[in-house]
Amino acid sequence: MVLFPTLFLVLCGVAFLAGVPLNGYVLLIAGCHVERTASTVWFWNRAMTDFIFIVFLPLRFISIFILDLDWAKSLSNTVSSFHMFSSAFLLTALSVDRCILVARPAWARNHCTPPLSFRMVVGLWALSVGFSLRYGDLWESLLSPANTSMYFRLEKERVKAAIAIQFLVGFLIPFALILIPKFYIVLAAKLRRNRLIQSTTPLRILLGLMPTFFLCWLPYHVFSFLQISAKYPLPLLNIGSTFACVLTYFSSCLNPIFYLTMEEEFLR
């Protein structure tokens, strides 16, 4: 238990020092060197969510080790939820965009324009903000001392409902909506292989982003449900939930690495 703060600090430092320059570089090359297309808008905003998330990592560290900073805890939890919702929504939109481009290439070229994608991104960001604002005090409610008051029981019910909504809207439903277009694209690729060479250029990048997001966020949701199912919060459970949060930050480090290892595909 003595090594826990040191190990947590080291992991946070690695994620921050690696994530900020990597995501900044991706934003730079995407903004300056990539042709403006609908796919560019999706990928650039996806990288922006990672950059915002990793920049606020020191706030997460402060909120854990300086317990009396309620504003830091609230803002850190809100930013984490915003990243989860916005990433899930943008990945879903990217998958649908790829599916439309494969199914109706002529229609997609005429209608799926950068201005339309930008308006949809603004809507998804607003939706993400709306969902994330309710999670500022989520973990504080989970870790409150147990009592028998009616207010506490109502508060626990509110937290359970919030965690269920977070899991469904920010993880499970987007995962299902992403898989459906992917199955269609794979099936179409077998039937019309030559026609799909150009339309699936960003597909390999998307296939790398999907498992990174869902595998890194899965422990976060698992520990969320474990927290609300336990009668009293155990120290080991709290440590596990803390490292699950750290893992979500590493997803923002892995994404730019994946972009840069496929830089030619990414620039195309």
TrEMBL record:
Signal peptide limits: none
SUPFAM superfamilies to which the protein is assigned, alphabetical: Family A G protein-coupled receptor-like
Family matches, as InterPro entries: Formyl_rcpt-rel, GPCR_Rhodpsn, GPCR_Rhodpsn_7TM
Domain G-protein coupled receptors family 1 profile: 22-259
Coiled coil feature spans: none
Transmembrane parts of this sequence: 6-30, 51-72, 84-104, 116-135, 161-180, 201-220, 240-262
UniProt keywords, alphabetically: G-protein coupled receptor, Membrane, Receptor, Transducer, Transmembrane, Transmembrane helix
Protein location: Membrane
GO BP, sorted A to Z: inflammatory response; phospholipase C-activating G protein-coupled receptor signaling pathway; positive regulation of cytosolic calcium ion concentration
Protein's UniProt keywords contain Membrane: yes
Primary site of residence: membrane
Entries under PROSITE patterns matching the protein: G_PROTEIN_RECEP_F1_1, G_PROTEIN_RECEP_F1_2
Bilayer disposition of the protein: Multi-pass membrane protein
MF (Gene Ontology): complement receptor activity; G protein-coupled receptor activity
Family in the record: Belongs to the G-protein coupled receptor 1 family. Belongs to the chemokine-like receptor (CMKLR) family.
Protein's recorded name: N-formyl peptide receptor 3
Organism this protein belongs to: Chelonia mydas (Green sea-turtle)
